[in-house]
C-alpha cells in the first residue's frame, strides 16, 4: 500500500491532471505499447510539454506585472510537432501583447528537440536511403517525416564535412596508408565509376586518424600527387613511411613531395597480383614459397628465397619472379626494421579495413544520385563507427623506442 502511494505521488508530479493520470495507469495495466504512434509515453510527453508551455506563460505574465507592463493571456495556437516519441499535439499559449516567445518549442519549430535529427543521422549513417529512414521512423516512432525534411537534416552535415576536410593536420605521421575504393555515381544522365581516395595515418603519438577522403573520376598517380600536396598544405611536413599499392608512378609522385619518406609496396597486394593466373592446384604451393620471401630475416635471405622460388616455379609461371624483382626495393623496404614496425607497414590492410566499414553501409546501393550524397553517407558512416578505426597503434611503446633509435631528433621533435 505504501509503495502504491509513492507511485501515485510520483505520477502526480509528472501528470497533475487526475483524469489523465488514471487513463495512463489503465493503459499501462492493459499492456498497451509505450512507444510509437499512439503509445502511452507519447501521450505523457504531450501532457508534460503542454503543461510546461502553460508554466512558461504563467511566468511571463507574472514578470509583466513586476515590470508594470500590463499583459494577459489570449488563447492558444495549435500545431503538431515531431519528436522521437511520436507526433505531439501542442497548444501554445498566446499573450495579448505578443511579447512571449516560448523556450521549450519556439514559435516556428516543428520538432521538439534535436533527438529526432540525431536518429535520422544515425539511420542514414548505417546505409539507409531517405525512403528507408522514413519507413523506420514511422515503424519505430510513429513519426511521419517527409523526404525533404530528411534531406535537409542530412544536408546540415555538409558544412561539417567541408571543415573536416580542410582542418589542420599533425605535422608528423609515422605511417600514411594510401588506397582507393570505387563507387558508381550518376552524372549528367549517365552512371560513372568514381574513386574515393583515402589517406589514413598514424601520428607521432600513435593515434590513428583519417587525414581525408577525396573524390575523383579515376585513380591515378597524378591525382595522388594533388592529394599529397593538399596534405602538405594542411600542415603535414614529415611522413616516415608511405604504404601503397602497385599503381604505376605512385612512388615517384611520393618522393617528389616527401623525398625523405620510405615507400613500402603492399605485400598482400603483390601476392594477389602474382597469383592471379596461377592454377588452383598450385596456388597453395606458390603462396607458401612467396611467404618464405617476405618473412625472411633480412634482405639477403629474402633474395635467396626469391631465387629458390624462381628455380622451382619459373618454368610454369615465368612472369611471377620478374614482377618481384622489378619492384624489389619497394617490396623489401620493411626488412630494415624490427618486427613491430614491419607489422605496421608491410601492408595497406589498415586502410582496407576502413574501406570495409564504408562498403558495409553502401553495399546495397546501385548508384548515388550525386557526389555530395555519396560523401555525406561515407562521412557519417565513419563518424558513427569511430571505435573501429580511431584507436592507438598496436604495441606503440616498442615502436616509439625504435623510431627514436632510428630517427633521433627527426622524430623526437614532434613528440
Description:
The protein is an alpha/beta fold and 415 residues long. The chain folds into three domains: 33-106; 116-155, no CATH class; 173-412, no CATH class. Helices cover 52% and strands 16% of the residues. The protein is built from 20 helices and seven strands. The protein has helices at 2-14, 18-29, 40-66, 115-125, 130-141, 147-155, 157-166, 221-233, 250-257, 267-274, 283-294, 299-313, 320-326, 328-331, 339-345, 349-362, 371-383, 386-389, 396-407, 409-412, and strands spanning 73-81, 88-95, 172-187, 190-203, 208-216, 238-244, 262-265. It has a five-stranded mixed β-sheet with strand order 5-4-3-6-7, sandwiched between helices. The longest helix is centred in the N-terminal third of the chain and has 27 residues, at 40-66.
Which key terms come to mind for this protein?
3 domains; single chain; 415 residues; elongated; disordered N terminus; alpha/beta; five-stranded mixed β-sheet; two-stranded antiparallel sheet
Amino acid at each position: 500500500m505504501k509503495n502504491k502511494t509513492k507511485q501515485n505521488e510520483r505520477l502526480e508530479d509528472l501528470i497533475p491532471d487526475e483524469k489523465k493520470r488514471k487513463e495512463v495507469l489503465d493503459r499501462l495495466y492493459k499492456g498497451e505499447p509505450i512507444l510509437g504512434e499512439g503509445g502511452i509515453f507519447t501521450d505523457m510527453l504531450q501532457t508534460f510539454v503542454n503543461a510546461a508551455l502553460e508554466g512558461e506563460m504563467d511566468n511571463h505574465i507574472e514578470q509583466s506585472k513586476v515590470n508594470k507592463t500590463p499583459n494577459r493571456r489570449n488563447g492558444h495556437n495549435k500545431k503538431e510537432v515531431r519528436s522521437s516519441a511520436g507526433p505531439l499535439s501542442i497548444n501554445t499559449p498566446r499573450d495579448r501583447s505578443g511579447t512571449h516567445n516560448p523556450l521549450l518549442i519556439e514559435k516556428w519549430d516543428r520538432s521538439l528537440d534535436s533527438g529526432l535529427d540525431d536518429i535520422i543521422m544515425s539511420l542514414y549513417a548505417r546505409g539507409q536511403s531517405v525512403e528507408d529512414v522514413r519507413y523506420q521512423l514511422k515503424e519505430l516512432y510513429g513519426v511521419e517525416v517527409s523526404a525533404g525534411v530528411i534531406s535537409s537534416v542530412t544536408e546540415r552535415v555538409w558544412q561539417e564535412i567541408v571543415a573536416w576536410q580542410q582542418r589542420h593536420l599533425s605535422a608528423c605521421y609515422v605511417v600514411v596508408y594510401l588506397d582507393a575504393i570505387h563507387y558508381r555515381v550518376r552524372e549528367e544522365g549517365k552512371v560513372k565509376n568514381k574513386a574515393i581516395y583515402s589517406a589514413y595515418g598514424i601520428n607521432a603519438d600513435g593515434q590513428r586518424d583519417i587525414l581525408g577522403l577525396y573524390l575523383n573520376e579515376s585513380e591515378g598517380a597524378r591525382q595522388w600527387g594533388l592529394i599529397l600536396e593538399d596534405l602538405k598544405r594542411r600542415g603535414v611536413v614529415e611522413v616516415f613511411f608511405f604504404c601503397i599499392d602497385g599503381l604505376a608512378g605512385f612512388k615517384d609522385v611520393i618522393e617528389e613531395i616527401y623525398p625523405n619518406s620510405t615507400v613500402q609496396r603492399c605485400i598482400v597486394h603483390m601476392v594477389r597480383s602474382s597469383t592471379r593466373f596461377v592454377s588452383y592446384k598450385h596456388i597453395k604451393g606458390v603462396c607458401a614459397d612467396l611467404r618464405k620471401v617476405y618473412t625472411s630475416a633480412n634482405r639477403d635471405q629474402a633474395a635467396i628465397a626469391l631465387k629458390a622460388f624462381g628455380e622451382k616455379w619459373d618454368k610454369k609461371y615465368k612472369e611471377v619472379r620478374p614482377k618481384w624483382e622489378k619492384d624489389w626495393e619497394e617490396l623489401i623496404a620493411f626488412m630494415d626494421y624490427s618486427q613491430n614496425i614491419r607489422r605496421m607497414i608491410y601492408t595497406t590492410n589498415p586502410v582496407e579495413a576502413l574501406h570495409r566499414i564504408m562498403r558495409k553501409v553502401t553495399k546495397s546501393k546501385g548508384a548515388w544520385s550525386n557526389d555530395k550524397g555519396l560523401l555525406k553517407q561515407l562521412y557519417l558512416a565513419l563518424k558513427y563507427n569511430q571505435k573501429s578505426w580511431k584507436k592507438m597503434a598496436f604495441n606503440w611503446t616498442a615502436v616509439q623506442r625504435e623510431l627514436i633509435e632510428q630517427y633521433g631528433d627527426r622524430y623526437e621533435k614532434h613528440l
